[in-house]
Amino acid sequence: MSLLDNIQNYYETLVVEMLAEHYKGQELELEFMTDVVCVALNHLPPRYFRHGVDMLFYTSPIERKELEDKAREAVTQAIEYVEKNNR
User: Would the pLDDT of 87 be above 70?
Assistant: First the structure.
């Protein structure tokens, strides 16, 4: 196990969840999903944590809502960008 195995970016999981929510029940190509996730993450600041409980303990419900809103907006914009430029 390396040092980097202990560090996670909160937005990575959140963006994937938002993408799944946006396309609920639909099957998507892995390449399309990967492009959308990369574009979205490049427009969000990193939010690193070590343990999932850290994010729950150290962020308020208001801040978590703001993080979710930012991730949702980044995913929406990334979908538009990827669809426009890759299809």
Answer: no
Output the 3-class SS for 52-64: HHHHHHHCCHHHH
**Global pTM exceeds 0.90:** no
Element housing 49 (H / E): strand 48-49
Burial profile 38-49: b = 16 or more Cβ within 10 angstroms, e = fewer? ebbbebbeebeb
The pLDDT tens digits for 27-47 are 889 999 999 999 999 999 998
Residue 77 CB contacts under 8 Å (≥ 6 apart), including other chains: 39, 40, 43
**Per-residue tokens: 77:** 């914009």
